[in-house]
Amino acid sequence: MYHMTMMTAGPTQVRENVRMARSRVTTNPDEDIAFCEYYKSICDKLAKFFHTKNTFYILSGEGILGLEAACASLTEKGDRVLVIDNGIFGKGFADFVKIYGGDAVLYTVDDKKPVDAQALSEYLKKDSNFKYATVVHCDTPSGMLNDVEKICNVLKEYNILTVVDSVSASFGIPLNVDKSQIDILCGGSQKALSAPIGLTFLGVSDKAIQAMQNRKTPIASFYANILNYVGYYEKKWFPYTMPISDIYGFGEALENVLNDTQIFQRHEIIAKATRKAVETAGLKQYINEGYSNTVTAIVLPEGISDKELLQKMRNQYHIMISGCFDVLAGKVIRIGHMGENANVPDVSQTLAALGDVLTEMGVTLKCDMRKVFLNECQLY
Ligand SMILES: *Cc1c(COP(=O)(O)O)cnc(C)c1O
Predict the structure, then answer these.
(1) Ligand 1, atom 4: closest residue by C-alpha
(2) Buried b / exposed e across 76-90, counting CB within 10 Å, b at 16+?
């Protein structure tokens, strides 16, 4: 197989040292105290990175497991849950709430703009009887960035627990969990952290743990039960055998992030330059404001098939970008410029190839996107 430059909206490219870390000799993670210490050291680094006293846990399962675990652990039959929806992942939380018997109340707003915390505050004045609320930091299908700090602070005025899906924003967008008053932060390994797929992490507040412990009915899951992790370090015991190689890779990727003092600036420069190139070419972005610096969603020009375009990108240029799904299937394509993908050579190559493919498919572009991109990057 030839090399494919992966510029999708996650999974992202994985650096060699992370791949190598996954091939280290392994120990028995159930028996070896050193593994438990290593696991805890990564969790502590996550807490420090996200500026919080909350406790972090890394669970074996892709990003979705984190979202499900938050809902499974908090939801009891009949609990009212506010599902803040301005995108596909936002709305998707309702499914998890319902699976565990909760009453998911959708707060659905314009999917082309970030959630307006002020308007949410007005809504809550009339109805605020919710056990918890869910909100997505970056709704990846549209590339929407929500101001979770403002949103969660409004929710907290009404004592509502806050669950934030930051799977595709964390490590690319700054986030202060304590200032934002986030009770459960959900993240994943395969987006801006740029470790392989397979792990989710959760940053959980004492309040959230108390809510789980105060339930009248038991949590209806084992794998998605956050309480099973509580006290693992004191007990030197995990609910199931930890995927040690995945965790070695995760730890190495986290070191890469921690050593990269320019990580947020780099995401910002590359994202801004990408948006500038796309707009200058006469292409349209799906959203009107709230652009996330981790992904850009571009509206497919009239009559262009996403499948054909993505195939040409792969076959002719060996570059993989993303299409979309659910209500945006066939409507947008996405460039993931997060984590290891957020580098000038790869993004400029991607834009050049995209320009060539669109031209070949009959779209007239108003500029050379690669040139505009490179020029913009130099302005910083
Ligand atoms: C990627 C992602 C997840 C995890 O889901 P996938 O199965 O990897 O698609 C969850 N939430 C968001 C916002 C994501 O971008």
Answers:
(1) 63
(2) beebbbbbbbbbbbb
